[in-house]
Design a protein that fits this description.
Layout: H1 4-10, H2 18-41, H3 46-67
Length: 71
């Protein structure tokens, strides 16, 4: 069951600390590299677009893990 504390944590702004900023950048850089590999090795099509969209989703979900401190 989802608790009030979880909702409070998930739906509030989390100001990043210095470590968070480094972690966000590492994830973005790796995801951008992977996205470029996808673009370079797949034909332009709906599936390519979907793949890139999912890479973006991965970054957002990883960022949430950092921001929410795994809670």
């Amino acid at each position: 069951m989802i608790t009030k504390e979880q909702l409070d944590n998930w739906f509030v702004y989390h100001a990043p600390n210095e470590t968070d900023v480094v972690n966000y950048k590492a994830i973005r850089d790796a995801a951008k590299h992977f996205a470029q590999v996808i673009v370079d090795h797949t034909p332009p099509c709906a599936d390519q677009t979907a793949a890139i969209r999912k890479v973006r989703e991965v970054v957002m979900t990883a960022n949430a893990a950092i921001a929410c401190k795994g809670e």
